[in-house]
Amino acid sequence: MDISLPNVLTATKTEKITVDASELKQYIENIEKKLDETQQQNKNAIIAIAQAIQQTQSEVNSAFVGKNRFEFYLERDSNLYADASLEKIIKEGQKIQSEYWHNAEERLGARWGSPSGEGWLGTTVSPLIKIICNEPEYHFANTLRLPSRFQLTSHARFASVLYFEMDGDKRMIDNNRWGMQTDDPVCIYVEPSTVVNGAVMRNFEQGISNVIIVALNKGLPVYLGADQDRFWIQDVNIQQHQGSLVGIKNGPVLDADWYPVEQKISGNVSLPDPRFINIQMEGPFSNERPQAAMMLSGLNGIISNLNLHGWMQGPVIFSDNNWILNGITADEGLTHDKRLFCDPREILTHCVSQVGEKRNSYVAPTAGGLDGWYLPKRSKAPRTAGFYTEGQTII
Description:
alpha/beta
């Protein structure tokens, strides 16, 4: 503000009057100075408030996102696809893991050696990378890879829906005859052991939780490549009304010419200590067979609180090496137009293959009066039901 006054004011009425205006001018200049100071103080206050708000937001985000560099938000492009974000997270996460892996292999290996083969030391102390879904909706054109010591989750049960459209050019295909060959594209491929940045990453602690998986275009929701150690899936809803006839499959390592890392081929298709907890599976609502909500091999596995809807066959377990099946529920399940999708007498809540002379697994009673089988391996199916037709050899 600029106010200019002369030192003398002159006014004419009927006579000439002369007044000394210097004090008045000084008074106005002081007011002007105070106004400028007040404006600057207000500006500084606004800046301080904005900085305080920004700091508070940062602290809140830190509290909810996590306070370590091993957690990553899954992002979407303008069309809600997350394929590119996923691959970026995997690349950054595995770069971090490889630093820890090489350090541990050199430092701990020199002192004690590996208790369980190549890569055990480095993988065990490599950071577990958490992929956090913080949006309610994501789309994928390609197969979602889940590497060693990576886990996929959201902030709450069923908080994020993952739509697998399976029309991209980077898809894994279930093209092997283990159990049954579907030739369907795989939605989530849980990797076997791999070689990344010179590090042999053993397939430890992979997990999926708190999401809804929607398999479209014949997608097979989850494929477990070979022999994941301590794999777990919890608080997940799997919908495959338009998906494959298999929900979760454990089978040999899959391969493709586009695959970005070297996979360690293992002849052992068996899951040590897997966990399948609090899962709701909505099936294909079809009487086409063979079909199975799960096809698994392994030992010390637990399937607990599994709700089946629209499935003619619950879990098929190829060996009864100390499994626990508890809290399996199933229903006859009407189609959208109120039809039965199969004869209720052909629904099996489970089928466990007995390997030795005695049963080594525990299967709790199931509600609803539906049947379940625990039969000797290579015996014959007593009737047509679930995965099997009458007289077919039990796998």
